[in-house]
Amino acid sequence: MNDYSSLLIDVEIYCKEHIIGRGIEYFNKQTVRKVEFSGHYIHANVSGSYASDYKVVIDVEDFTNSICSCPYDDYCKHIIAVIYTVQNYPQVEKEMDSEASIEQVELEELLLTQDKEYLIQLIYELVKNDDQKLQLLQKLHRNNK
Ligand SMILES: [Zn+2]
């Protein structure tokens, strides 16, 4: 999975402070929609103050190539809002990442074809040294009663 924290550093370097503030406001208002990952580009729509959405393209490898369709001719709040959104919602990427979902399907198939004893052993091995997972199992057990 990609880590977009370097983009946050680019934002600090290239964007004006008050624009960063506006971008974070936009991120908090969840104005970013339709995030798509394609190669080292992130495409997203950001709803603006007016009716139409602005289209943002972020270049993950070179932030300075990032563009937005809004009239502001510097790195704008929409670009910043998209970067904060992908950085703070890594599950967005997970859903979009087709490779990850193929692996998940394979795992499901694999588990479905195993017998119960094997699965019990597997779960036991996975949780025995992990307090957090043990607690989760106990909680599930209590909820099932
Ligand atoms: Zn913009």
From TrEMBL:
Residue ranges of every copy of the SWIM-type domain listed in the record: 54-87
Keyword match Zinc: yes
InterPro entries in the record: Znf_SWIM
Keyword annotations of the record: Metal-binding, Zinc, Zinc-finger
Domain of life: Bacteria
Name recorded for this polypeptide: SWIM zinc finger domain-containing protein
